Amino acid sequence: MTATIRFEWSEIKVFDAFARANGERLDSQVAALALIIPSAMVRGAIRVLFKLKAPGHPYRVVHERDAALEYIAPYLSELSPRAAANG
Questions:
Q1: What is the mean pLDDT of residues 54-83?
Q2: CA distance 17 to 21
Q3: How far, CA to CA in Å, does 48 sit from each of 38, 45, 53, 54, 57?
Q4: Read out DSSP for 59-86?
Q5: Looking at the DSSP assignment, which residues form a beta bridge with residue 73?
Q6: Are 23 and 56 in contact (CB under 8 A)?
Q7: CA angle centred on 34, ends 59 and 26, rounded to 5°
Q8: Segment 44-64, tens digit of pLDDT
Q9: d(CA 53, CA 15)
Q10: In the beta sheet, which residues pair with residue 59?
Q11: In the chain, what percentage of residues exceed pLDDT 70?
């Protein structure tokens, strides 16, 4: 079973403000980002947003956890080969 969290507009505005204020720091500290979004419509919307203003680090928008883990694995092994092996 998958849990779904729906964000209120006020929460989205807080996330946006945080990203705008901390974008450079996030880009320098995030190795890669995988967003797991089950809804095809929402995945499409996020992809459009990232085309307009992409993060400064690698990212992928996927539909399920295994795809996210597959995408993130090489970045984890670059950061810590031991951590990736213990996954």
A1: 87
A2: 6
A3: 16, 5, 9, 9, 17
A4: EEEESSHHHHHHHHHHHHHHH-HHHHHH
A5: none
A6: yes
A7: 60
A8: 888 888 888 888 889 999 999
A9: 15
A10: 33
A11: 84
